[in-house]
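Q: My collaborator sent me two sequences in one message, no labels, and asked for predicted structures for both. Can we handle them in order? The first one she listed is below.
A: Yes, handling them in the order given. First sequence, followed by its structure tokens:
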Amino acid sequence: MNIKAPKGTKDIVPSEINDWYNIENAAKEVFTKADFKEIRTPIFEDTALFERGVGDTTDIVNKEMYTFIKSDRSLTLRPENTAGVVRAYLEHNMFRESAPVKLWYKGPMFRYERPQAGRQRQFHQVGVEMFGIQDASADAECIMLAVDFLNKLGLNDLTVEINSLGCNVCRKEYKERLKDAIAPFLDGLCDDCKSRYEKNPLRILDCKNEECNKLFDKYNLKESVSGIKLCDECSSHYEKLKKYLNELNIKYEENTFLVRGLDYYTKTVFEIKSNSLGSQNAVCGGGRYDGLVETLGGPHTPAVGFAMGMERLKALLPSIEADKITFFVVSDNQLEAVKLTSKLRHKGYSCEYDYNSRKFAKQIEKASKTAKYAVIIGEDEIKNNYYTVKNLSDSTQEKMSFDELCML
């Protein structure tokens, strides 16, 4: 029986694990310095959480969720983590804490979609959520944090795009203009766009269907509807954001048709793109979602956050070699090899020995591939109570006591 990993999933094997540690450790360092605390939520949640939180006009809810029934309860593998973090924020009464409440996370997400470069059905995200701050400084902090994290990884060829979706009042008039502009060619659009036309016409702008985009260009859709006309409050918020970004020396571009793929966004939305990934070049997406906490049963709470796909980040970074252990014990006396290995491990060193007690040449060969030092225990070493230590990087060797060995 030839059983393989399901389509759209990949094993993370030991030769790759340092690449993942690199991303995770950078996230922990950068986010912790900004006083974000790590949170770990369940991999599956009540299906209603995503239906209410993510939105029933999104592809995620309509097409991509892995949902199953257990004991008459509908459960879903998380397709994104913002809704789960908000659920935890409410369940654990974090809204009673003094604002801001700043959380970060990492872990696997699940969406049923066509696998492609940097996108899998089980994929991994790292992200942050910040609750309780209405001012645009929170939005600026999230964008700054995302840029700092990417720079920490060595990614500097970035484009930051921003937009404001305004509030429900701002969007109402824009949605009507959008529907009027789309009506003449609505019949030619895909079924998803036709459905969105009534439920949430803004989402039409996020359509990836090639034929739809040809019609958008043919009818000059984006030029004809221009951008959202923001109310005074939303306009002030957006202008403040740009002022903060300017003061932080974060270069950005305004994209009045950036809408993101989730229904809960309000006011600020942003994407960070890498110029090294081709057409699928977005490495970070986020924005403000001031109504989501309330939608899920909590008090009105302003919030903002972002998420990044770790597979895409990994694709942009050079591979890191697997770590070598410190010591490999080479001996034909298995008891002595086991004893020294145990002593070195208890001293805090990584150490291994040859379980098959093969010839010295074979053991040295294995040691040279996996360790920094070979510690040789032969008859003379046992008789005279010392170890012969070979530096495997330059082949020099010397006699050492156990205490000297522990000083390497």
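Q: And the one she listed second?
A: Here it is, processed independently of the first:
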Amino acid sequence: MNVNPKKKKRLATVSEVADMPDYPFTKSALRHLIFQAEDRVASSGDIIPGNGLKQAGVLIRIGKRVLIDLNKFDQWIENHRVGE
């Protein structure tokens, strides 16, 4: 199997991402982003839109463990850049 190094998935846990100097997120902030990844229903019955992490394929759930695809996370962050 030929794997292109640029296409190789880089996966990390929430704790690992929080410890990486490349990402300015704490564990708490990452958990908050994960919680908001999907659309949810407010107590009023209104739909609260998610932040797009799920649709972007950033999160990989295996049981209780959540892995973050760093390549897709980088792209998701770039897509949220405010105009320069």
